[in-house]
Amino acid sequence: MKPYSRSIFDLFDGKCRYEVPLFQRQYVWNFEDHWQPLWEDIERKFVQRLNGSPSTPHFLGAMVLDQRRVYGNAVPVQLVIDGQQRLTTFQIFLSAFRDVCAAEGQQAYADECVRYLMNTGIMENEKIEDTNSGRRISIASKSRSDEDVESYCKT
Predict the structure, then answer these.
(1) pTM value > 0.85
(2) Of 101, 131, 136, 133, which is closest to residue 119 (Cα–Cα)?
(3) DSSP letter for each residue of 62-119
(4) Cβ-contact 14, 120 below 8 angstroms
(5) How far is Cα 25 from Cα 80, in angstroms, rounded to an integer?
(6) What is the pLDDT of residues 20-34, one digit of tens each?
(7) How many other CB atoms are found less than 10 A from the CB of residue 20?
(8) Are 132 and 21 spatial neighbours (Cβ–Cβ below 8 Å)?
(9) Of 50, 75, 80, 101, which is least packed with CB atoms within 10 Å of its CB?
């Protein structure tokens, strides 16, 4: 195993699919313990950049991925051994950011987000697949209501 640093955008850039295996737990992030601290970190980094202050990269934690064998023109697949909660959270965050940008008339930014959410072209599919429930996480492909996301997280 060879460790190396990658940004969250590097993880989602290009054609790829992350498969969440059956042994992974369901999505359990909640507002107080997980989302709020993450948002505070994002906000702090944003303010640093706006003020022109030096900013170091934010460490999101280790992720362990295993390259799966694919055939033909299939999208490359990586099995998520560790980091499923963070990968899913950033897909939710990017999906919400895409929707806000579109609602605010910032279509160029919304379109840019889609690049990190969906594989396009002949090999089109979502970036994360949850094999635990046997269904794909479809927040990337269309807007979902809060109830839909909450329902998914509980199943």
Answers:
(1) no
(2) 136
(3) --EEEEPP--TTPPPEEEEEE-HHHHHHHHHHHHHHHHHHHHTT-HHHHHHHHHHHEE
(4) no
(5) 12
(6) 888 888 899 999 999
(7) 24
(8) yes
(9) 50
* 27, two tokens: 């999505």
Q: Which residue has the tokens 């969906």?
A: 118
Closest CA to 41 of 107, 108, 89, 101: 89
The string of pLDDT tens digits covering residues 70-80 is 888 778 888 99
- Beta-strand relationship, 128-130 and 118-119: unpaired
Cβ proximity of 20 and 130 under 8 Å: yes
Buried b (16+ CB within 10 A) or exposed e, 70-84: eeeeebebbebeebb
Angle at 14 between CA 61 and CA 139, to 5 degrees: 70
In angstroms, the CA 33 to CA 10 distance is 26
Collapsing DSSP to helix, strand or coil, 132 comes out as coil
Angle at which helix 84-103 crosses helix 107-117, to 10 degrees, equals: 160
Distances (CA, A) of 37 to 40, 44, 90: 5, 11, 14
